[in-house]
Structure formats: structure tokens, C-alpha cells
């Protein structure tokens, strides 16, 4: 590791975003360093090692496209790669592009303060070291700040406690044990079927049921891989034109304009194919409640077909809007409730009272547990950023600026915080699209901006307040035209008590990419330079 403490760019986080940012900085001759809290690279895929963890965007799409050599040499083994395979991939990228000498692991950024006079960022680390840089890039992740709900008695529990987003590196042994899992979002839905195979008994504490569609995961063979490799450029280009950043087709028809039989055939086809493509069945699924109800009813019927006990099937059936929270993609989730060693506990009907020394007590019953798993999600999109004491002009903190919810220009930058960028920040499509192209687009935009500034002898860039306000209004207005704000999702911050209820990601891929390009082409419209 180079010892200089004055850098051009400090990058926080060594996930997919931070690593690509570092690569682009190296390529363009900027002195950059990544600071990463974990003791390895990979971000999401370093931390989320729970049983069954894998991506829900197909591996051949959930991967970098910036290097054709990388695309050609990497062989994905399954339709949806497992966490270990994704972690191998990230490590391969770190080695292949010689990134490691510029990555400082096991180090957390605690504070970043903009020095108005000298126009540099002063960054404090939990190692007591201080670094300075002209630019800071926050690649801290949207789903990297684990949420453990405040339930009385947690400290009293004598068994093992885990959070899916902070899973230990060793194998956790569930065999013969009484295991409790709180939560039924994507992480729980992936891990429950795998844990149930080993556990003596698994209690699933469900507050709100989620919709899940089958993954139909499968191994990829050589012929398929070769075909994809040949078509990579065209596939990537085609995916760029879709609203999800993924290749699946969105049916241009509206759900209520076709017959019930046709609708069922379309849902059947998508259910059989598996994956997030289910949401592309009709164009209006996330804008029309009537349309959405048809998809919701279809999934509820499937749950009743799969789950043998009708009362359990009923408890597993959501009555909310499909896709309003992220749609879960499962392998054998609903089938797991037909096992005799799995019990669903409805903690909406009978809320959790406290965790005890022996287990967990709801209003109705006490459960003795050896192991308790929190699959309770994340303080999404803003959590990791707000954990850092980031102070912009005049010492104003990001916590003050975001008191009523996150405010950014394009999800990339903030008024009052010069020379600081966020990768896939709130106000950008981010988690609503395939994250890999979203990350690459942001990193490329930031890199172009920095090289342009260098060429023009500009030292400081800052988002204009008025443009930021307009953008925030536009992001809210766009979400307001859809069904997204109608449920208590983490997109809205509704999963964290006291968090302002604001729809954080921007519903606008791929037009957003054009918008960013136009801003750059208009000499960074909406930004000021000093
Ligand atoms: P991260 O991978 O979250 O990396 C951020 C890094 O920053 C972390 O390593 C963290 O330790 C570090 N960090 C944060 N704060 C600090 C600090 N103060 N100091 C030092 N280091 C810090 N997206 C998809 O598009 N498709 C999928 O299939 C998909 N599957 C997912 C599955 C799971 C289980 C989860 C949790 C998320 C999934 N996502 C998926 C979203 C996923 O987060 C992104 O796809 C992507 O991995 C994010 O990369 P990133 O580099 O932006 O952030
Ligand atoms: O977290 P979540 P996650 N008492 O927030 C429950 C990505 N991801 O880690 O809905 C009882 O979705 C909460 O209940 P409720 C993906 O983007 C992708 O599962 O608030 N329950 C909910 O059931 C995903 O959306 C994959 O009522 C409590 C659960 O905990 C995001 O990460 C896999 C509770 C949290 O669900 C987050 O997913 C994994 C309490 N006090 C993750 N507090 C793929 O498949 C919370 N809950 C690729």
C-alpha cells in the first residue's frame, strides 16, 4: 500500500462499485485508494454468506461488462450464481485488474469533512489514520447497513444470533437445533428452504408475507455459455434499453385489455420460465391496481396449490401490491412449509413481546430456540452514508441535510457537498434496475467528469441547489404516479422506525442514462465549477 495520505480520490467500499471506480481511476492516472470495513473485497457478496444466498438477476447479466476479456474468460456455472461463486468472481476481478495494492481492508471511514479553505476532503478512519483527497466517492452500498430491530431482551438470549447480512465465515451448524428466523423478505426466502433441511425444527416468525416466484435455477452448459459469450455486446446493449436493465421482455399490453384466459396463459408462461420476468407480464402491473390484483391473485392461487395446509397457505398469502416491495425469487420456499420440521408463526396476529434467555416470546406463546436469525433487512440506501459523519460546506452534516429524507442531484451528488459523489445513491434508479449496469454507468459518468475537470483545469464541482430541488421533486412525482408508495417497503424507508417516508430510488431507467449523458454534454448542467 502506498503510504501517501494525500490522494486524488478516496473511494469508500470495495463492492462491485468501489472496485470498478478504482479500476477507472487507475486507468486514468488518478491516485486513488479504497477504504473497506470488511477484511475482503466483494461488498454484498462478502457479507451475505447465509445459506442459499445467490443473485436473482441472471449471472450472465449480473456481471461487469466493461471488459470483454473478463466476460470471455469467466464461466458462470448456474443461471443464478451462488454467493461463493460471486465472491470468487469479485476476487478474480480484484486480482485481474491489480486492484489490491490500492485497497485498505479492515478499516472503516468514520468521518469525511470538506475543508472550505483548501477545498479538500479530510477523511478519518477507525484506525485513527487521516487521509486527504480532492474527491470522495461513496461506494458504500444500498444494502450494506444491517438492520437489527430493537426487540427487548436480545442481550439475554443464551443461544447463537446471526444476521443474514453479516453472516460469519464459518459454517453454521443447524443440525438437530431449534432455529428461529425473523423476517420473510428475499434473504429469508432464500435461506429458509436450505436451513430447514438441516434444522431439528425451524420457526419462521413472519410479520408480513412476501410474494415469491420460482427461480427455476439450473446449471449452465458449455453450449449456452459459448452462445452468450458470442452475443455479449448485443445482449448488453439490448438490456440497456429496458426499464429493468435486464434482458427479459416486458409485454407492452395492459393486463385488463386481454381476456382472463390470455392473462392466465401469460402468467403461466412466466411462472414456468421463472425469475423477475414475472413482473414484465403486463406493462401496467405497477401503475394499475386492477392489473396488479390479477397478478397477486395468480400468485396467491399458486401458494394454495403448493402449500398443503390451507391455513398456512392463507397466512403466507400477501394482500399487498405485487412488486411494490422487491419481488422475491425462490427455490422451494413455499414447499418448505409442507415439512413437518417447519412452523410458520404469524407475528402480526401475535406480535413478538421479547427475546428471552431460552428463545422468543410472542403474545401467544414462548418458543425455545438454540439459534436466532435476523433476516430483517437493511437501513437501505441512506444507512451506510448516514453512519459516516459527512460534513460539507460550512461544516453542515449530511444528517442535517437529509433530515426530511435524502436529497441529491441525479443520485450522484449533493448541493453543499462539493467533490463528493455517490454511486447508485438515492435519487438514481439504483436498486430498481439491474445493479451492475447501474453501477458501471455511475462510475463511468464520475470518471468522465473528473477527467473533463482535469482537462479544463477545474478543481471543484458542486451540484446546484435549484437543480437538486427540481430533481428531488421529479423523483417523488414519478414514484407518485405508480403503486410503489402504497406499501411499507425499504424503498420508502418504512422498515426503519423514525426514518422519513420518502421513495428513494428513481423510477426511470433507461431514460435516466440519457439524462446523465445530456447533463454531461451540456458542460455538466446543474453543476457549478470553481
Ligand atoms: P456493496 O456491495 O454493498 O459494497 C459496499 C461496501 O462498502 C461494503 O463492503 C461495506 O463494508 C463498505 N462500507 C460501507 N460503509 C463503509 C465505511 N464507512 N467504511 C468502509 N467501508 C464501508 N442486486 C442486483 O441487481 N441483482 C441481484 O441479484 C442482487 N442480489 C442481492 C442479494 C443480496 C443478498 C443483497 C443484500 C443485495 C443484492 N443486490 C442485488 C443488491 C447489491 O447490493 C448490489 O447488486 C451490489 O452488489 C452493490 O454493490 P456496491 O459496491 O454498490 O455495494
Ligand atoms: O430484507 P427485507 P432482506 N419483527 O427488508 C421483517 C436484496 N436481496 O434482507 O415486511 C418482525 O426485504 C420484515 O417484515 P415487514 C433485495 O433487494 C436480494 O430479505 O417489515 N419482522 C421483512 O419480512 C431485498 O429486497 C436477494 O413486516 C421484522 C424482513 O424482516 C433486499 O436485499 C436476496 C421486523 C426484512 O425483509 C433486502 O432483503 C436477499 C420485526 N421487528 C436480499 N423487522 C436476492 O434474491 C423486520 N422484519 C437476489
Set out the fold topology.
Elements: E1 6-12, H1 16-27, E2 32-35, H2 44-47, H3 68-73, H4 83-96, E3 103-104, E4 109-115, E5 120-125, E6 130-138, E7 160-163, E8 178-182, H5 186-198, E9 201-206, E10 212-214, H6 222-240, H7 260-273, H8 289-306, H9 310-316, E11 328-330, H10 333-336, E12 342-346, E13 352-355, E14 359-362, E15 366-368, E16 371-374, H11 383-386, E17 389-391, H12 398-401, E18 420-422, H13 435-456, E19 461-463, H14 465-480, H15 511-521, E20 527-529
Parallel strand pairs: 1-2, 1-6, 2-3, 4-17, 6-18, 7-16, 8-9, 8-16, 9-12, 10-11
Antiparallel strand pairs: 4-5, 5-6, 13-14, 14-15, 19-20
Helix pairs in contact: 1-13, 8-9
The structure holds flavin-adenine dinucleotide and 3-acetylpyridine adenine dinucleotide.
Give descriptors for this structure.
five-stranded parallel sheet, FAD/NAD(P)-binding domain, globular, binds flavin-adenine dinucleotide, 32% helix, alpha/beta, binds 3-acetylpyridine adenine dinucleotide, 530 residues, eight-stranded mixed sheet
Plain-language structure description:
The chain is an alpha/beta fold and 530 residues long. The protein is built from 15 helices and 20 strands. It has helices at residues 16-27, 44-47, 68-73, 83-96, 186-198, 222-240, 260-273, 289-306, 310-316, 333-336, 383-386, 398-401, 435-456, 465-480, 511-521, and strands at residues 6-12, 32-35, 103-104, 109-115, 120-125, 130-138, 160-163, 178-182, 201-206, 212-214, 328-330, 342-346, 352-355, 359-362, 366-368, 371-374, 389-391, 420-422, 461-463, 527-529. Strands 1, 2, 3, 4, 5, 6, 17 and 18 form an 8-stranded mixed β-sheet that branches. A hairpin with a 3-residue loop joins strand 13 and strand 14. The protein starts with 5 loop residues before the first strand and ends with a strand. The model has no long low-confidence stretch (mean pLDDT 97). The structure holds flavin-adenine dinucleotide and 3-acetylpyridine adenine dinucleotide. Residues 55-56, 143, 149, 164, 182-188, 190, 205, 207-208, 326, 329, 347, 352, 375-378, 431, 490, 495 line the site of 3-acetylpyridine adenine dinucleotide.
Amino acid at each position: 500500500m502506498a503510504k501517501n495520505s494525500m490522494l486524488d480520490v478516496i473511494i469508500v467500499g470495495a463492492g462491485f462499485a468501489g472496485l470498478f471506480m478504482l479500476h477507472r481511476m487507475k486507468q486514468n492516472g488518478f491516485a486513488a485508494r479504497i477504504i473497506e470495513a470488511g477484511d475482503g473485497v466483494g461488498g454484498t457478496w462478502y457479507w451475505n454468506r447465509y445459506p442459499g444466498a445467490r443473485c436473482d438477476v441472471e449471472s450472465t447479466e449480473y456481471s461487469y461488462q466493461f471488459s470483454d476479456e473478463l466476460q470471455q474468460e469467466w464461466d458462470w456455472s448456474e443461471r443464478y450464481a451462488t454467493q461463493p461463486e460471486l465472491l470468487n468472481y469479485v476476487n478474480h476481478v480484484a486480482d485481474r485488474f491489480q486492484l489490491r495494492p490500492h485497497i485498505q481492508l479492515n478499516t472503516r471511514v468514520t468521518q469525511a469533512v470538506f475543508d472550505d479553505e483548501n477545498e479538500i476532503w479530510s477523511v478519518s478512519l477507525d484506525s485513527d489514520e487521516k487521509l486527504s483527497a480532492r474527491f470522495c466517492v461513496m461506494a458504500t452500498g444500498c444494502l450494506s447497513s444491517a438492520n437489527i430491530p430493537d426487540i427487548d431482551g436480545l442481550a439475554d438470549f443464551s443461544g447463537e444470533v446471526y444476521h443474514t447480512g453479516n453472516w460469519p465465515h464459518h459454517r453454521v451448524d443447524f443440525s438437530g437445533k431449534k432455529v428461529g428466523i425473523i423476517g420473510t423478505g428475499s434473504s429469508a426466502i432464500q435461506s429458509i428452504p436450505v436451513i430447514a433441511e438441516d434444522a431439528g425444527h425451524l420457526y419462521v416468525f413472519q410479520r408480513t408475507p412476501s410474494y415469491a416466484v420460482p427461480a427455476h435455477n439450473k446449471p449452465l452448459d458449455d453450449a449456452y455459455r459459448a452462445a452468450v459469450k458470442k452475443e455479449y455486446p448485443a445482449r448488453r446493449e439490448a438490456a440497456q434499453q429496458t426499464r429493468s436493465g435486464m434482458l427479459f421482455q416486458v409485454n407492452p399490453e395492459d393486463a385488463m385489455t386481454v381476456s382472463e384466459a390470455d392473462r392466465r396463459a401469460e402468467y403461466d408462461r412466466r411462472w414456468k420460465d421463472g425469475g423477475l420476468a414475472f413482473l414484465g407480464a403486463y406493462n401496467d402491473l405497477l401503475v394499475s391496481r386492477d392489473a396488479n390484483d390479477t397478478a397477486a391473485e395468480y400468485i396467491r392461487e399458486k401458494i394454495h396449490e403448493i402449500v398443503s395446509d390451507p391455513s398456512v397457505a392463507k397466512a403466507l398469502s400477501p394482500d399487498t401490491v405485487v412488486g411494490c416491495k422487491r419481488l422475491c425469487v425462490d427455490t422451494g420456499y413455499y414447499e418448505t412449509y409442507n415439512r413437518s420440521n417447519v412452523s410458520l408463526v404469524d407475528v402480526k396476529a401475535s406480535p413478538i413481546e421479547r427475546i428471552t434467555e431460552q428463545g422468543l416470546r410472542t403474545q401467544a406463546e414462548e418458543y425455545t430456540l438454540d439459534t436466532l436469525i435476523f433476516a430483517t433487512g437493511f437501513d437501505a440506501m441512506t444507512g451506510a452514508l448516514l453512519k459516516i459523519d459527512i460534513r460539507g460546506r460550512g461544516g453542515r452534516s449530511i444528517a442535517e441535510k437529509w433530515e426530511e429524507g435524502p436529497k441529491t442531484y441525479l443520485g450522484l451528488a449533493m448541493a453543499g457537498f462539493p467533490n463528493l459523489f455517490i454511486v447508485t445513491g438515492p435519487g438514481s434508479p439504483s436498486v430498481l434496475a439491474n445493479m451492475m449496469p447501474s453501477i458501471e454507468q455511475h462510475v463511468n459518468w464520475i470518471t468522465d467528469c473528473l477527467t473533463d475537470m482535469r482537462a479544463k483545469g477545474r478543481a471543484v464541482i458542486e451540484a446546484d441547489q435549484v437543480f437538486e430541488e427540481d430533481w428531488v421533486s421529479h423523483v417523488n412525482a414519478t414514484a407518485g404516479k405508480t403503486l410503489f408508495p402504497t406499501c411499507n417497503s425499504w424503498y420508502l424507508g418504512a422498515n426503519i422506525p423514525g426514518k422519513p417516508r420518502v421513495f428513494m430510488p428513481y423510477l426511470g431507467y433507461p431514460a435516466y442514462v440519457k439524462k446523465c449523458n445530456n447533463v454531461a454534454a451540456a458542460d455538466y448542467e446543474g453543476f457549478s465549477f470553481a
